[in-house]
Every structure is written in C-alpha cells, then in structure tokens.
C-alpha cells in the first residue's frame, strides 16, 4: 500500500535500498551527487568540479546537504511515530566527501551525476570514469532521450531517424 508524505518517503525511497542517490543543484549552475548510505550511516558527497575546499560553492553545497539531511531526519521521526518503525536519526550522520574523477569542462556535471548513480558502490567507482567517457556519452544520452518511448513527439523522432539514415549512407 502506497503512503504519502514523510512516511511514504521513508518507506518507499530512503530505506528501500542501502544507498539513496540525490542529484543536488548548486546555484543553478552545477550538479553534484549526494548519497545517503544506510549501512555506513553517512552522507557521501561526489562532486566532479569542486573538491570540498572552502569556497563559496562548497559552503552553499554543505548548507543545502545539511538542509536535506535535516528534512530526511524529520521524515524519519514522523515515520517512527506513525509506523512504529525504528529508523535512524540521520541528522547526526557525517557529511563526507569521496574522491572522484574531475570534469575538465564547465558543462558535463549532469553526466557525471548519472555516472555516479550507475557506478558508485559506496566506497569507489565500479567503472573507470573520465572526461573522455563523459564526452562519448553525451550524444548517446541526447539520442536516448529524443528517441525514448516517453517522448511523444513522433514527428521529431522521425526527422531524427531520417537525418541519421542520410548520415549513415554517406559514411
């Protein structure tokens, strides 16, 4: 039975698996990955652009992560009260940065977030991630979104297929 609100988030999102991934936008200019790691009882920060040095961006990120941690903690308290659960007090969990490959441009952070969600095992990346890998993935991601069954613009999809067919015939 689906629940809504705080208890629903705890039961259906935060505690379903060992790691919950949160893409976090900083200042409308940068994306990073935050992982709530249940077994380790910590929040993990994976940032492809700014190491957690003392910069304006990282201070803003830490404030946002702390706010999310507090909201999740409040949700856990509500779930404990309404479901009889025994969910942890995540507000006391540390926020730790983990090393990750750094992007070499100013616009691929979103793809680095996707790579983190696919390959972060809680201790390390399970695949080699590099700017070259990200660059190779950019076109594929656009194509996947454009040709997705969720994209209802069939006319646009057909135009893309026609263009691709012409390009392939030349090659």
Describe this structure in a few short sentences.
This protein is about 50% helix and about 15% strand.
Q: Overall pLDDT, averaged?
A: 89
Q: Radius of gyration, rounded?
A: 20 Å
Q: Number of helical runs?
A: 5
Beta content comes to 5-15%
Adjacency order of strands in the biggest sheet: 1-2-3-4
Please estimate the helix content. 40-55%
Explain the layout of strands and helices:
Elements: H1 5-14, E1 19-26, E2 30-37, E3 42-46, H2 56-83, E4 95-97, H3 109-119, H4 131-146, H5 154-170
Parallel strand pairs: 3-4
Antiparallel strand pairs: 1-2, 2-3
Helix pairs in contact: 1-2
Which descriptors would you attach to this protein?
single chain, 171 residues, 4-stranded mixed β-sheet, 14% strand, globular
Describe the fold and architecture.
The protein has 171 residues and is of the alpha+beta class. It has helices at residues 5-14, 56-83, 109-119, 131-146, 154-170, and strands spanning 19-26, 30-37, 42-46, 95-97. The chain has a four-stranded mixed β-sheet with strand order 1-2-3-4, with helices on both faces. α2 (56-83) links the parallel β3 and β4. α1 (5-14) crosses α2 (56-83). The mean pLDDT is 89.
